[in-house]
Write a structure and sequence with these properties.
alpha/beta; 22 strands; globular; binds 1,4-dihydronicotinamide adenine dinucleotide; binds magnesium ion
Length: about 500
């Protein structure tokens, strides 16, 4: 075991590239494909089937049929849970192959991909346990009536996910949807379609009936958009960019679909002078550079109390210079490539803007090599709140250091953003910690830690970072409809 963890794994063979509809691997009606790339080299790994509107319609029809008749509709809740447990076991059994495929297609380090696979297993098991514990209530109504509520599936659920945590986002979406008895049409990100197909194959092996899980790969503006406007889709669950969510919400309005959104952020990470410095430096480093900054909760606005700032930033820069950036399949690598040329160009563009506006570039700032999409871990010091690098989600290894002096001041500045996904505070003073936790407008707050996200804890955004919550019991709210039944007595 220890040996497999330190050896560089061989890239797996890619066999699955078609659409999955009704438990059949099918070619798209128009026969179109798109290339999926290895971001470490920029080279094509495989051609993947591209679903057009006719394929989306076929997948939705299969999902509708599975919802309304047959084994899934009539299955005991406990047996839905057993299927999810079985899928978790199969992912666990094939974790090394899946992690390698994830790293190949997404560029995340093999260490991070292995962590993600454990997450996938945890998420499926957590929601497997929920399947037979989703209960209604009896309600004390006025008059001679008995009223009770039933919790029923929302229906056919369209799920649109991004490329930064391809399988983990799949698990966050499938887990609660399937535990509640919905059926799913999923569109993975066009950059990272491969692992979803392999896990869908494992879902068939686990015994999920035809039509319960369907996968339609393709681009957002076409395949994704066709799913959003489809009149027979009851809900869209989306993770990605704020601007995409706005388009989806408008497009979903015509059919008044339910929507849930998990969007980005510009998360404030606040370091007080009384924090444990070793822990705070390591924490701030992990907060921004985990997965090359391609993380919705990335701690990209680093507020550092002015009296410790110089020392803090120097220590951070020292660590950044030593970070091993390179081949994601090499277990020694700490940071892989960005996912695509587009993402790399966006990041480099923001770095140029930062320099132009006069922020102080402490380290990094360049592309690494001319093959693949590698970017140096980058630190800007002395950033002003109104600079683009302090306001926009860069989604790369670029941190903006913002000096502050007072608690009230830093709370006000932390909240001065239209985002509100995550925030963190580093201090030994419990007064400051709890005051910050109460006042900061964000769905998650970490005290003396960062990026701790569990199956059990609600996750989502205040303000424009999202709508609804994923994970924990909270997710079940968004995958069930509540029905009130009232019976006249006597
Ligand atoms: P995106 O929001 O365009 O893509 C996410 C998913 O939405 C993909 O599956 C995509 O195909 C789909 N999509 C795109 N347009 C659509 C439409 N009109 N209708 C339906 N589905 C659509 O994000 P993109 O372009 O990949 O990345 C751009 C930026 O978005 C990143 O730089 C980052 O700032 C942010 N982002 C945030 C993520 C998060 O975890 N919150 C994840 C990925 C990106
Ligand atoms: Mg986009």
């Amino acid at each position: 075991m220890a040996q497999t963890m330190t050896k560089k794994p061989a890239p797996p063979a890619v066999k699955l590239t078609k659409l999955l509809i009704n438990n059949q691997w099918v070619d798209p009606a128009q026969g179109k494909t798109f290339d999926t790339l290895n971001p470490a080299t920029g080279q094509t790994i495989a051609k993947v089937a591209e679903a057009g509107p006719a394929d989306v319609d076929k997948a939705v029809k299969a999902a509708r049929k599975a919802l309304e008749s047959g084994p899934w509709k009539n299955m005991d809740a406990a047996d839905r849970g057993r299927l999810l447990f079985k899928l978790a076991d199969l992912v666990e059994k094939n974790a090394e192959e899946l992690a390698t495929l994830e790293s190949l297609n997404c560029g995340k380090t093999i260490t991070d991909s292995r962590g993600d696979m454990q997450g996938v297993v945890n998420w499926f098991r957590y929601y497997a346990g929920w399947a037979d514990k989703i209960e209604g209530k009896t309600v004390p109504v006025r008059g001679s009536f008995l009223s009770y509520t039933l919790r029923q599936p929302v229906g056919v659920v369209g799920q649109i996910i991004p490329w930064n945590f391809p399988l983990l986002m799949l698990a966050w979406k499938w887990g609660p949807a399937l535990a509640c008895g919905n059926t799913v049409v999923m569109k993975p990100a066009e950059q990272t379609p491969l692992t979803a197909l392999r896990v869908a194959e494992l879902a068939i092996e686990a015994g999920f009936p035809p039509g319960v899980i369907n996968i339609i790969n393709g681009y957002g503006e076409t395949t994704g958009a066709a799913l959003v406007v489809h009149p027979d889709v009851d809900k869209i669950a989306f993770t990605g960019h704020v601007d995409t969510a706005k388009i989806i919400q408008k497009a979903a309005a015509d059919t008044l679909k339910r929507t849930t959104f998990e969007l980005g952020g510009k998360s404030p990470n606040v370091i007080f002078a009384d924090a444990d410095m070793d822990q705070a430096v390591a924490g701030a480093f992990h907060a921004i550079y985990f997965h090359g900054g391609q993380c919705c909760t990335a701690g990209s606005r680093l507020f550092v109390e002015d009296k410790i700032r110089q020392d803090f930033v120097e220590r951070l820069a020292e660590k950044a210079k030593q970070r091993k950036v390179g081949d994601p399949l090499d277990p020694k690598t700490e940071q892989g490539p960005q996912v695509s040329q587009d993402q790399m160009d966006k990041i480099l563009g923001y770095i140029q803007l930062g320099e132009k506006r006069g922020a102080r570039l402490m380290t990094g700032g360049q592309r690494i090599g001319d093959k693949g999409y590698f970017v140096e871990p980058t630190i800007f010091d002395n950033v002003k709140d109104d600079m683009a690098i302090a306001k926009d989600e860069i989604f790369g290894p670029v941190v903006s250091v913002l000096p502050f002096k007072k608690v009230d001041e830093v709370i006000q500045r932390a909240n001065n953003t239209y985002y509100g996904l995550a925030a963190a505070v580093w201090t030994k003073d419990i007064d400051k910690a709890h005051l910050f936790a109460k006042e900061v407008k964000s769905g998650t707050v970490w005290v003396n830690c960062y990026h701790i996200v569990d199956t059990t804890t609600p996750f989502g955004g205040f303000k424009m970072s999202g709508q609804g919550r994923e994970n924990g019991e909270a997710a079940l709210e968004h995958y069930t409809e509540t029905k009130t039944v009232t019976v006249k007595l006597g």
